[in-house]
Structures are given as structure tokens and as C-alpha cells.
Amino acid sequence: MLLQILLQATEQGGAGLAVFGAAIGAGLAAIGAGLGIGKIGGSAMEGIARQPEAAGAIQTAMLIIAALIEAVALFAAVICLLISFKL
Q1: Full residue range of the structural domain in which residue 50 is found
Q2: Residue 46: its pLDDT value, please?
């Protein structure tokens, strides 16, 4: 629904509203990635504290998941930038 509102605003010459929506989207993607990576890091530290012998496996899994989250956040930010520069 929000996307429809933004698209209607751009059809009527409201480029500022679309850029504002893209900025909000990029900000939400960054906040979501930060919260997700923080939760992963905290959970990994708890897991390592409970089972120190599994530290290597936990750390490897943590880094892979954090990289995937960063990739999704970067993709979302690029899409938002493309939307804002398109106008």
C-alpha cells in the first residue's frame, strides 16, 4: 500500500515524496541489519560461553550469517538509492 502511494505521488510530480520514502527505506534497512547482527553476536557469545569447545563452529556460522545480513542490507540500500536517483 505504501508503495502504491509513493508511485502515485511520483506520477503527480511529487519527486520529493519518493526520495523521502527511499531515504526511510534505506534507514530501516540499516537499522534492521544492525539489530540483526547485534542479536547474532550476542547469541554467539552466549553459545561460546556455554560450550567453549564449539567456539570455532559457532564463530564460523556467526560470520557467515552476518555476511548474509550485510548483503541483504546493502541490496536494500542500493535499491533505495536507485529509486532516489531515478527521479
Answers
A1: 27-87
A2: 96
Residue entry with cell 520514502:
21
pLDDT digits 0-9 by tens, 43-83: 999 999 999 999 999 999 999 999 999 999 999 988 888 88
Q: Going by C-beta distance under 8 Å and a sequence separation of 6 or more, which residues neighbour residue 22?
A: 80, 81, 83, 84
12 assigned to some structural domain? no
CA pseudo-torsion sign 10, 13, 15, 21: negative
How many domains is the chain partitioned into structurally? 1
Report in angstroms the alpha-carbon separations of 62 from 10, 56, 74, 83.
41, 10, 18, 32
